[in-house]
Amino acid sequence: MFATPASVPSPSTLRRAVEPATRSSELAQANAHIRRVADMLALVADAFPVHRRLVHAGDAIHQAGQVFTHLCVLNSGFVKMVNLSADGRDQIVGLKFRGDWLGFDGIAGAVHDCDAIALDTGEVWAIPYDALLAACAARPRLMAAVHDAMSREIVGDRNSLMSVCTLPADARVADFLRTWAQSLALRGLRTDQIMLRMTRAEIGSYLGLTLETVSRALSRLAREQLIHFADKGRRDIRIPDVGALDGFVQQCLAPAVATLQ
Amino acid sequence: MFATPASVPSPSTLRRAVEPATRSSELAQANAHIRRVADMLALVADAFPVHRRLVHAGDAIHQAGQVFTHLCVLNSGFVKMVNLSADGRDQIVGLKFRGDWLGFDGIAGAVHDCDAIALDTGEVWAIPYDALLAACAARPRLMAAVHDAMSREIVGDRNSLMSVCTLPADARVADFLRTWAQSLALRGLRTDQIMLRMTRAEIGSYLGLTLETVSRALSRLAREQLIHFADKGRRDIRIPDVGALDGFVQQCLAPAVATLQ
DNA sequence: CGTTCGATTGAGGAAGATCAATTAATGTGG
DNA sequence: CCACATTAATTGATCTTCCTCAATCGAACG
Fold it and tell me: Are residues B135 and B185 in the same domain?
């Protein structure tokens, strides 16, 4: 119905080369997440006649300054959140995947606080916020799902902050890839071959690094065999073992930790 | 709004230009915020017999790993959110003031994701989450207030990320002071004389800097007369003109911006 | 009065930014 | 289909910022 057949993972397509313990637990997590997203989408579709909108790379789903009227659920595709400060700095402050909600930033001020820009072709479901509030009052599970999504966003944002504040550049890039792969895994998508839909400059923006540093970090990861570039183009990345990226992050941290002991 | 004027503004002209307009608008904002918080607290108090809990500096309001059962509203005092990652890194990821909610991070995973530690004496109102859900269904305004609080948290977290990613150390510290002062102003507290309840190390943790860098930045701000240390102790800071901190941030950014033009 | 913890300040070093040159991929018009 | 222009990515050399290490100082506390 809503959960497209393609998105249901056959266990074999999920990553193979990982510790048995984490593999099964992450598989369970992925299944739980897929179920939750499917339930949530069903709840939403059931509650209102959602407005489905097809977006292409570069399209703005909403923009900073726009009056807030709708939330959106991302049904497919990838979206970046771009924040522009009053003094002209701008930065990518978030990335969204299937099942994520967009526009929570607009609730507080009645005006959107940042741009949501599609990174490729996808579909969003627009939901008028007042209708959502009304529907939530009648459907506790829908309300819980909305809170759930907001809570996830808060946790994710904090993890981004942590990555930026506590990891050196190489580890930050590795962590970025790890998180991206995990986001895909949670949604039942394959993680061994991922297509970054962002330029080095965009990745750098998100991680607080320059594009050169991102490029160097990726080259180093490739040299250490933690990633491989698919032929023709350096945006397709093969990650033979996602778990190994954890090890790399740990290793970057090790010198500092060692001195503490 | 976005396009910085070609003629780079001298800090003084810039500050002077914005001051009269923002002064009254910030006052209006503060009044609106105070009203909103008061309304929200009344809504909460009206909906359940909230459990009021007195906390002292160092007390944990909740801790990472604890099963999530309650949200809390901070009625008075200051609270830091501390996140500990799986690999041992830890960081302050947020600061909370009167009227802020605590514990949203626990909704998604049913377990708290970080510690909430009181920075001084204060009072929190604990609210069982299931009771809140039930009450929200019956009281649209309460639900809206909860969403409002979560939205604010999301926007605030993103602004933290932006500060860390796009500002040099000195500007980051200035921005931190500016934000702290603004948080106080929004709550109707005086901003000219503020008491930091954090050590240099804690500020550094929050900003992704070492304590030495924070100390140096504060010394520089003091040297430039943007802040003054109250006698006896360097935790009490007088900010003669909060708006001037904006100018300082701008000024730190200016060299980079100038080359872009 | 000494101990401890937090803050300051200086000197040196390292991570990452900046500047610059080259290469690879993509798109465009003839 | 191919030259050409354009944008993205890589890599190197240098420089700046901030971190690290270390010494000193001040305040608070027992």
Answer: no
Q: At what angle do helices A169-186 and A200-207 cross, to 10 degrees?
A: 100
Distance B62 CA to C14 C1' (A): 39
Q: Is the CB of A232 under 7 A from strand C?
A: yes
The burial class, CB within 10 Å (0-12 / 13-18 / 19+), for B260 is exposed
Residues of chain A in contact with residue B105, where contact means CB-CB under 8 angstroms, are 151, 154-155, 158
pLDDT digits over A99-147, tens only? 999 999 999 999 999 999 999 999 999 999 999 999 999 999 999 999 9
* Domain membership of residue A216 as a residue range: 167-254
Give Cβ neighbours of residue A220 (< 8 Å, ≥ 6 apart). Answer: A170
Nucleotide nearest to A234 (CA to C1'): D9
pTM of the prediction? 0.89
B98 and B40 in contact (C-beta within 8 Å)? Answer: no
Q: Which of B149, B133, B48 is nearest to A141 (CA)?
A: B133
- Residue at which a domain ends, from A158, A189, A204: A158
pLDDT number for residue A171: 97
Give a yes or no: residue A10 inside a domain: no
For B48-104, write each residue's pLDDT tens digit: 888 999 999 999 999 999 999 999 999 999 999 999 998 889 999 999 999 999 999
Would you say residue A261 lies in a domain?
A: no
Nearest to B75 by CA among B40, B103, B47, B117: B40
Q: Do A174 and A57 belong together in one domain?
A: no
Q: Could you give the 3-state DSSP secondary structure of residue B82?
A: strand
- What are phi and psi for residue A178, nearest 5 degrees? -60, -45
